[in-house]
Design brief:
The complex is a heterotetramer of chains A (209), B (96), C (998) and D (419). Chain B is mainly β and 96 residues long. Chain B is built from one helix and six strands; from the N terminus they run βββαβββ. Chain B is globular and about 40 Å long. Chain C folds into seven domains: 1-159, 2Fe-2S iron-sulphur cluster binding domain, sarcosine oxidase, alpha subunit, N-terminal domain (Ubiquitin-like (UB roll)), CATH 3.10.20.440; 167-296 and 428-488, FAD/NAD(P)-binding domain (3-Layer(bba) Sandwich); 300-426, FAD/NAD(P)-binding domain; 520-590, Arc Repressor Mutant, subunit A (Orthogonal Bundle); 616-666 and 761-853, Probable tRNA modification gtpase trme, domain 1 (Gyrase A, domain 2, 2-Layer Sandwich); 669-757, Alpha-Beta Plaits (2-Layer Sandwich); 899-997, Elongation Factor Tu (Ef-tu), domain 3 (Beta Barrel). Chain C contains 22 helices and 52 strands. Chain C starts with 13 loop residues before the first strand and ends with a helix. In chain D, strand 14 and strand 15 form a beta hairpin. Chain D has eleven helices and 18 strands. In chain D, the strands form three sheets. In chain D, strands 1, 2, 8, 9, 10, 11, 17 and 18 form an eight-stranded mixed sheet that branches. Classes of the chains: A alpha+beta (209), B mainly beta (96), C alpha+beta (998), D alpha/beta (419). The B-D interface holds B 1, 12-14, 17-18, 20-21, 34-35, 38-39, 41-48, 51, 53, 69, 71-74, 95 and D 240, 242-243, 251-257, 301-306, 310-312, 345, 401-402, 414-417. Bound molecules: flavin-adenine dinucleotide (FAD), nicotinamide-adenine-dinucleotide, flavin mononucleotide and zinc ion. Zinc ion (ZN) is lined by residues 5, 7-8, 57, 60-61, 63 of chain B.
């Protein structure tokens, strides 16, 4: 097979609708103490593809270049360096490792084609991660309830990413706008995380979109 | 306690997994010298003072890092990626 | 009862907003801004609680967090919050409070009989008795346990409820450049200075109203009353974008890396919280630098009867008068060893009390103090001491005698003064708790008779009374300097503000105890007397830490805030040593009690998240009984109405072996192992070889720990030349990933391999049974699934119902079986398609029980056998140990202990009495149900085997294989199950594997 | 010195408690002793006591660097049990239990050993089987053990949450009725007084700073109070083992020192009579006679000599405690502290002659050595007096790690933080 790598690590493409891990607990509308305004809005973002790219030591710059050309995003070469442009997003999650997401089908195969094996590896996580978006004026406050990260804008600029955890739930977080974060959690934990998130948002009033 | 991950910056100790004594050197895989293996697996310097140790940033970038930490005060004076190798300049743990 | 409200107004309370509450069922009213203590005092209540040991009646000693006596239980419906100092409770309409440690009532408490035998109950008395007889029915521990029953009933303070707390608790993380703890003059000044440097500042204080002692002092700062000055500072801070103010916040712990932890009382001062609002919020604050401006606490003096309700700390009385508009007494006296109480006396005078006398142990009182005493119109009794108090449950008078400070002797006639309140002051102890939590030694200052903070072990600077700087001007100047220094700035020192204050030299006389006869209390709550301290000395418990443990001094809810220094002064005197040689006990978190809920945060009620497979909702909809497996939930059985668990799994097993069954295996750990050195890496990690595995095939692998013990097993699929998909057991998924990462990062960094958890990426369904292949053939497109295309351990890619799938033919059940993987979001879709395709063939879903039964029939091992003590040989997996290469564990697996002949080895068991076996039963050669002994091993797994029609099990047994074909017994005294078994091979079913090879 | 009794208490009460004498003397160290015991913790003191009582060896000094009992004996969660899985441990701890049952009489000091039972909660059927295996192992060694159903558990502990909708429902529990708690300080003080009454010198504020050697042989110690010679030197310093042994030139041992935190709430009225452990995580709890709930959880998980820990474990323990007892959320934490645990590579102890001639070593108690105090002292005294192990500590050798004869209760291998 020409692209065993591609076949191996990609879940592939299908017209069949994908089932969200959040389905039964996703309740659009306003909740909590919202009478005085909505503190945050929550939504699930469903990028068609989420891919992890890892560069061998010394090949990080090359990989950043490839990400640049495939995604059309210029990543700063810094810890968690990332960029976001509409549905296209990329950010660093570990030394030489990046998470990219896009609305293109089978991004894993696209990167597998674009990348020599001696640059690094491509791992499809499109189904393995649930992306929860939280936005609004109280977003830093709510994020601070879950993660021991400094969410102030200077410490966590737009586009940047961080890997961290809320207790047992591993999370990779990208700031996608001044008042907006996208949280990537393991699909199996997504429902628990969402439920806890909603509960913590009650205090400021929240809306599910 | 905060540990400064060389990649992620200072993070709470709860994000890390302790992977133990960083002074130990694994014998070459084919080595038959059981004494060396035993020492690697079971014996510890366990100093009261500066200690070379390995932590994994398991709830972060997942990198393993070498940490020099004082076991009397918990003060951390050095962290570096484990892939960079052993922090050779440090001595192996006499009381500071 | 008479109202004790002052007519001069009061700082904090809002006299236009009355508040109604109850205490011990009696309804009272206070004002918004009152504490429970101030409101009750205003209502003329003087009896607040009972002491721990002697059940002595107690009033309120302090006005803050140091309160040892006035502890109450707050009730919210059936939820009880015991041991809350009334001084820290803000009243609200509907507040319900109860007194504690009394029966039947606070006023009439039978426990008070303990006072009659007080001498018997001296420190440590319980060590010397209750041993009971050496023989007879009360020998051994029985007599003690009999007595202990009653002792336990008598001990304890408030009562905890049994109803789950309905309040919400939360955590939040915060980052700042400067955290200022304490909002008195020093803290306010520090916060302002730090804020002016532009960094992020957090200012936290225990109290609801920021300002600390400025809220009740009689001073003016820069021409305005101190309270107004403080309010103006607070207003200024509030207006700044870079400052967060945290009133009602107890900064309780100073942890490594300047991690500070604090609890904010968010809503308990309200009648009901807003929607979503927590009761308590724990703040985890990571501060660049901490400014400790925690002030100082006043100490009482130790003299007979010093615990009678009506005896109160002088500054607390000032606070009640100035801040709450309450007079703690109408005819008061003052007893002091220092200047500060004179100011308090004057404040009470101004508030409307009559000051009868000021009793000062010092013979030489400064002219300024004499003037102050004159202003209060009190009789000044210099060189005098209080030697006793009178009254029942409320103070009615004190006895005073001439006192010689040098020798400590009393002389002259005893005078009795009629008073209803006695203000005491034994000097001040800086609140050095947070600074000391790291274990650093505090330093004794002889002139202040106090411990001052240790040298910083972390990044903090101190200011104000915390430093022993007891003047407001100094506090403000130090606070400013601390705020600047903490921000890393260098501004010019602050011009001292102009402070108008009553004169006060901070140095107290070195007298803390008046040695007269009668019970003199050092630790109020625990009823530790000065005599107890001396008894500890006589018995050799002279180290302060021994003193504490022997007498329990300082171990009460107030942690000795008011009692430690007097206690060790008495010990120092007994030893004839200076105080610094005696030292102080170790400070520990929390600074003041914090609710357990606040520390648990949202994990109270939500201990662990749930992990759900992609098909979870399907299982639940089909009526599966779900069972926890680590954090996962997995179907145990898909029971039919009326079925027992055994009936259900037997049915599921039979259906699978007879036709086909399907099980959700999405929980298996899945790790993508990628990169040019992947095969080499797997060869080193696994005991067997993977480099020879062709692309498109899978292989069963075994891993050992470095010490040669079996670690985990699973299949690994070669998807590409450089591309493997490793599966692990559900339980070990995380550990195995970590294991791989460790070797790649630390041991073999030269290998070009990445490992990534893809557990959540793939939904997995294992479909097995004689009809399984037909079912697949009916629904899989894009690939053949016959023996040629999909041989044993082969892998193909195809589609099911429009979804790409990856199928590997491997078997855990022992049947012809296939694992079907697809993208997790399509898991339910594919699962349903398989179910649909399987309908004509009799496909059933099966759960963990049937999975277990089939694996037992096949003799496959899982966590019960790979239990961290067994080797590959013990489990008959030695065929997997490659001799051609070293691997993790190979060097150590043959050590003598790991190859000893008496090790436990895996065998099969067949129940010979046709009764079920129990997991955890032991195996013996001879049954003795009365006196079980000589265990040979134990049962690891059991089931009813539908294939054999028998109850069977797996076991680890000494001698293992050599016992095949012999008879033994299960011995399960815990469950009363004994009976014969035959020891057989662990391969019960189709040992040749003809079914799975097809 | 006077016997302690109710009568003595009464007599003294009538005379103002003036006649009580120091519980142990405060002697100056002599120039030499037959046996020096380094470490005035529970094990050092009980060793001295049994050396005198069982072997007539009374020319003994116990050297303690701080105040007596300042180590783990004075800071543990006081649980005494013998509910072990592996026979070497079960036998040893059961022997200890038997000594506990008569200890107050033996010492003429009420150590408040109270057999209130220890209950391990199981939260899955597999865990209950695992506990059954252990309980049956105990029964086959003649130790008491019972399985309890959720309903029985609820009757015993009314405040416990057995609702089926709990995140980790309770499937049952393993109970050892004879297990219980003792008063930690009393154990140290009682042994100290008992040893002192038999002539042992207990010397506080005397830190061992080195070992006197004649060739290989250890012949004494150097201390902050001078050199002291001895026929035999026995080391029982728990968390400080590696540090002290390094002074003798032993620079590597199968030991790591880890901090374990413990907690106590403010006093409340009787709430919990039994010792209970939570099975989905690590939390154990009992109520002291004073009314405080005394509880703890896992070690912090990194090497430490600081006697204090960090916040993550505090939060874990509180969360798990509330999972068992949701009505305690409003009860307040009073104090937290830490102790240094000598974690061994298989989680089991070491009591042995050597590793140098003239020297004896007792360590590896992890966070479970309080309950061992009587048996440890008894066996260590035997080992010192006879130069060979008692049959009960014969398995607790130092070379068992290298030889692979491990006693690994938890099956975690050489990762001390997991034991
Ligand atoms: C928080 C906590 C909870 C625990 N809970 C339990 C429990 O519930 N049940 C249980 O069975 N066990 C428990 N343990 C374990 C138990 O407390 C210990 O295993 C046991 O006390 C160790 O033995 P020891 O008493 O001799 O140690 P220690 O009391 O620590 O004695 C060692 C002594 O050696 C002294 N020393 C050290 N160096 C020197 C030197 N150079 N010179 C002189 N002296 C020196 C130390 O100062 C110390 O006093 C717990 C431990 C901790 C920390
Ligand atoms: N001898 C004397 O006359 C004497 C003695 C002591 C203090 N004083 C007066 O006290 C003032 C000193 O000012 P200051 O600012 O140093 O102290 P302060 O007492 O005014 O303020 C300290 C504040 O810290 C808070 N605090 C303490 N520990 C805390 C914790 N762990 N978490 C949260 N908050 C905590 C307290 O609630 C208090 O509000 C001066 O006005 C001085 O005149 C006088
Ligand atoms: C079983 C037990 C019960 C305790 N109860 C209390 C208590 O009621 N009050 C208290 O202040 N401390 C209590 N402590 C803790 C001690 O005060 C002290 O913190 C501990 O012994 C460790 O010593 P250190 O903090 O001085 O290092 C208790 C300790 C133990 C072991
Ligand atoms: Zn990191």
């Amino acid at each position: 097979m020409a692209s065993t790598r591609k076949a191996g690590q990609s879940a592939g493409v299908s017209a069949v609708a994908r089932l969200s891990a959040l389905a039964p607990v996703y309740r659009p509308g306003s909740h909590g103490n919202f009478e005085h305004g909505i503190g945050v809005a929550l939504s699930e973002v469903v990028p068609t593809s989420i891919v992890q790219l890892a560069a061998w030591s010394g090949k990080e710059k090359k990989l950043i270049g490839i990400i640049g050309s495939v995604m059309g995003l210029a990543l700063p070469d810094a810890t968690g360096g990332g960029a976001v442009e509409g549905a296209r997003a990329a950010f660093g999650v570990a030394p030489g490792k990046f998470l990219v997401s896009d609305d293109r089908d089978d991004l894993a195969s696209i990167f597998a084609e674009a990348m020599e094996p001696d640059t690094g590896t491509v791992t499809d996580l499109s189904h393995g991660r649930t992306v929860i978006r939280i936005e609004g004026p109280e977003v830093e406050w709510i994020m601070a309830k879950f993660f021991a990260l400094d969410f102030s804008l200077p410490a966590f600029p737009v586009g940047a990413g961080r890997s961290t955890a809320h207790h047992d739930i591993f999370a990779q977080i990208q700031r996608t706008a001044a008042e907006q974060f996208d949280i990537y959690v393991f699909r199996s934990f997504a429902r628990s995380f969402w439920t806890a998130l909603c509960r913590s948002c009650e205090e400021v009033g929240y809306e599910v979109q | 306690m905060l540990i400064t991950c060389p990649y992620c910056g200072p993070r709470d100790v709860s994000e890390f997994t302790y992977q133990g004594d960083g002074n130990r050197q694994r014998p070459a895989p084919a080595t038959k010298d059981l004494g060396a293996w035993n020492e690697y697996v079971y014996d510890r310097i366990n100093p009261a003072g500066d200690h070379n140790e390995i932590w994994q940033h398991s709830s972060g970038c997942r990198m393993h890092i070498h940490v020099v930490r004082n076991t009397l005060t918990h003060e951390i004076t050095d962290t570096r990626p484990a892939r960079g190798g052993h922090p050779a300049s440090r001595h192996h743990g006499a009381k500071s | 009862m008479s109202s004790r409200r002052t007519e001069t107004g009061g700082g904090r309370i809002d006299r236009s907003r009355p508040v109604r509450f109850t205490f011990d069922g009696v309804s009272y009213s206070g004002y918004a801004g009152d504490t429970l203590a101030s409101a009750l005092l205003a209502n003329g209540v003087s009896l607040f609680g009972r002491s721990f040991k002697y059940h002595r009646p107690r009033g309120v000693l302090s006005a803050g967090v140091d309160e040892p006596n006035a502890l109450v239980t707050i009730l919210r419906g059936e939820v009880r919050n015991p041991n809350i100092p009334a001084t820290m409770v803000e009243i609200h309409d509907g507040l319900v409070a109860e007194s504690q440690n009394r029966f039947p009532s606070l006023a009439w408490d039978v426990g008070a009989v303990n006072q009659l035998v007080g001498k018997l109950l001296s420190a440590g008395f319980y060590y010397k008795t209750f041993m009971g007889p050496v023989v007879g029915p009360l020998r051994g521990t029985r007599f003690w346990m009999f007595c202990e029953h009653f002792i336990r009933r008598a001990a304890g303070l408030g009562r905890a409820g049994r109803m789950p707390d309905t309040a919400r608790y939360e955590h939040v993380n915060a980052f700042c450049d400067v955290l200022v703890v304490g909002s008195g003059p020093a803290g306010l000044s520090a916060a302002k200075a730090a804020a002016s440097q532009g960094g992020r500042v957090i200012l936290a204080d225990l109290d609801a109203r920021l300002g600390g002692s400025a809220n009740w002092s009689d001073e003016t700062i820069d021409g305005v009353p101190a309270a107004e000055w403080a309010a103006a500072q607070v207003k200024d801070l509030k207006s700044r974008g870079n400052v967060r103010l945290l009133p009602r916040t107890n900064v309780w712990g100073y942890y490594d890396g300047n991690t500070m932890v604090a609890v904010e009382r968010v809503s308990e001062h309200k009648e009901r919280p807003n929607k979503g609002e927590p009761r308590h919020r724990q703040w985890k604050i990571r501060a660049g630098t901490v400014v400790l401006a925690t002030g100082a606490l006043e100490r009482p003096l130790v003299f007979p009867g010093n615990d009678r309700p009506g005896v109160m700390l002088a500054d607390a009385a000032r606070r009640y008068a100035n801040e709450f508009g309450v007079l703690p007494g109408e005819k008061i006296a003052v007893f002091t060893n220092n200047d500060s109480a004179y100011g308090a006396a004057l404040a009470l005078k101004k508030a409307g009390a009559a000051v009868v006398a000021i009793v000062d142990v010092r013979p030489d009182v400064s002219p300024e103090m004499r003037d102050l005493a004159g202003e209060t119109e009190a009789e000044l009794l210099a060189g005098h001491a209080v030697t006793a108090t009178e009254g029942g449950k409320a103070l009615s008078g004190i006895k005073v005698q001439r006192f010689d400070m040098q020798g400590g002797s009393l002389s002259g006639a005893e005078r009795i003064l009629a008073v209803d309140c006695l203000l005491v002051s034994g000097g001040w102890s800086p609140v050095i708790h947070l600074a000391s939590q790291a274990g650093a030694k505090a330093e004794w200052n002889d002139s202040l008779q106090a411990f001052l903070p240790p040298k910083p072990a972390q990044k903090w600077v101190g200011a104000g009374a915390f430093n022993g700087s007891f003047s407001t001007a100094a506090a403000i100047v130090e606070g400013h300097a601390a705020g600047i220094a903490a921000s890393g700035g260098t501004a010019a020192p602050l011009e001292p503000p102009s402070v108008e204050a009553t004169p006060c030299r901070p140095e107290p006389a070195p007298v803390l105890e008046i040695g007269a006869s009668g019970k003199s209390f050092v630790d109020y709550q625990h009823d530790v007397t000065a005599e107890d301290v001396r008894l500890a000395h006589r018995e050799g418990f002279v180290s302060v830490e021994h003193l504490k443990r022997y007498t329990t001094l300082g171990m009460a809810t107030d942690q000795g805030k008011t009692s430690n220094v007097p206690g060790l002064a008495i010990m120092a005197a007994a030893l004839g040593k200076p105080i610094p040689e005696v030292g102080t006990t170790r400070f520990r978190p929390p600074y003041a009690g914090v609710s357990i809920g606040s520390i648990a945060g949202s994990r109270y009620g939500d201990l662990k998240p749930e992990r759900l497979t992609p098909m979870h909702d399907w299982h639940v909809a089909q009526g599966a009984t779900m069972q926890p497996a680590g954090l996962w939930w997995r179907p145990q059985i898909y029971g039919h109405p009326g079925e027992t668990v055994e009936q259900a799994y037997v049915r599921e097993t039979k259906a699978t072996r007879g036709a086909a069954g399907i099980v959700d295996v999405s929980t298996l750990g899945k790790i993508a192992v990628q990169g040019p050195d992947s095969a080499e890496f797997l060869d080193r990690i696994y005991t067997n070889t993977f480099s020879t595995l062709p692309v498109g095939k899978a292989r069963y692998g075994l891993m050992l720990r470095e010490d040669g013990i079996a670690f985990d097993d699973g299949t690994t699929w070669r998807l590409g030349e450089q591309d493997f998909l490793m599966t692990t057991t559900t339980a070990n998924a995380g550990k195995v990933l970590q294991h791989l990462e460790y070797y790649l990062d630390v041991v073999w960094p030269e290998l070009k391999v990445t490992v990534t958890s893809v557990t959540d990426q793939w939904a997995g369904a294992a479909i097995g049974g004689p009809r399984a292949r037909e079912i697949l053939a009916a629904c899989v497109t894009g690939t053949a699934v016959d023996n040629a295309a999909l041989p044993f351990m082969g892998i193909v890619h195809g589609e099911i119902a429009g979804v790409p799938v990856m199928i590997c033919r491997l078997s855990f059940s022992g049947e012809m079986a296939f694992e079907v993987y697809c993208g997790a979001d399509w898991g339910t879709h594919v699962w349903e398609a398989l179910m649909e395709a399987g309908k004509p063939f009799g496909l059933v879903p099966y759960g963990l029980e049937a999975l277990g039964a089939m694996r037992i029939e096949k003799g496959h091992v899982t966590g019960a056998e790979i239990d961290g003590r067994t080797t590959a040989c013990d489990l008959h997996l030695d065929w997997m140990l490659s001799k051609k290469k070293p691997f993790v564990g190979s060097a150590m697996m043959n050590r003598e202990g790991l190859t000893a002949p008496d090790r436990l080895q895996l065998v099969g068991l067949v129940s010979l009495d046709n009764r079920p076996l129990n997991g955890g039963a032991h195996i013996v050669e001879q049954v003795d149900d009365k006196n079980p002994r000589n265990s040979l091993g134990h049962v690891t797994a059991v089931c009813y085997s539908p294939s054999l029609g028998k109850y069977i099990g797996l076991a680890l047994v000494m001698g293992g294989k050599s016992r095949h074909g012999t008879r033994a017994f299960v011995s399960d005294p815990l469950r009363g199950r004994f009976g014969p078994v035959e020891i057989v091979s662990h391969h019960f079913f189709d040992p040749e594997g003809s079914r799975m090879h097809g | 010195m006077a016997e302690y009794s109710a009568l003595a208490l009464l007599k003294n009460a009538l005379t103002g408690n003036r006649d009580w004498k120091p519980a142990w003397r405060k002697p100056e160290p002599k120039a030499s002793y037959d046996v020096i015991i380094v470490g005035g913790g529970g094990h050092g003191l009980s060793t001295a006591y049994y050396l005198a009582k069982e072997h007539g060896i009374t020319n003994v000094a116990v050297l303690e660097k701080g105040w007596l009992g300042s180590g783990n004996v004075g800071r543990n969660t006081v649980t005494v049990r013998s509910n072990y899985l592996l026979p070497p441990n079960t036998r040893f701890y059961e022997f200890s239990m038997k000594l506990w049952e008569n200890l107050s009489h033996d010492l003429n000091y009420n150590v408040m050993f109270s057999q209130r039972g220890v209950l391990n909660l199981a939260h899955t059927p597999a865990q209950l089987d695992d506990f059954a295996r252990r309980g049956n192992a105990m029964r086959h060694e003649g130790v008491d053990a019972e399985l309890m159903t959720p309903a029985q558990i609820k009757r015993l502990i009314p405040a416990i949450d057995i609702s089926g909708n709990a995140r980790f429902p309770i499937y049952g529990g393993l109970m050892q009725p004879r297990a219980g708690t003792a008063r930690h300080d009393a154990v140290a003080w009682g042994y100290a007084r008992g040893a002192d009454r038999r002539g042992v010198d207990i010397i506080e504020n005397c830190e061992v700073t080195g070992f006197l050697r004649e060739g290989d042989r250890v012949v004494g110690v150097t201390t902050t109070r001078g050199d002291i010679r001895a026929g035999k030197v026995a080391v029982a310093v728990a968390g400080s083992t590696s540090h002290v042994m390094r002074l003798a030139g032993i620079d590597r041992l199968p030991i790591e020192s880890h901090v374990l935190q413990a907690f106590v709430t403010e006093s409340i009225k009787p709430f919990l009579d039994t010792v209970v452990t939570f099975g989905m995580g690590h939390c154990y709890i009992n109520q002291s006679d004073k009314g405080g709930l005394v509880y703890g959880g896992d070690i912090d998980g990194y090497n430490s000599y600081a006697q204090r820990g960090n916040l993550p474990v505090v939060e874990d323990v509180m969360s798990e405690m509330l999972a068992m007892f949701p009505s305690l959320a409003g009860v307040r934490l009073l104090r937290s502290w830490g102790g240094l645990c000598d974690m061994s590579m298989d989680g089991s102890p070491i009591i042995t002659t050597g590793p140098l001639p003239g020297m004896y070593l007792n360590c590896g108690w992890c966070y479970g050595g309080f309950k061992a105090t009587p048996a440890s002292g008894f066996c260590f005294a035997h080992t010192i007096a006879r130069d060979e192990p008692h049959e009960l500590n014969a398995a607790f050798t130092l070379d068992r790690f290298h030889r692979g004869i491990l006693i690994d209760e938890k099956g975690q291998g050489a990762t001390p933080r997991l034991h």
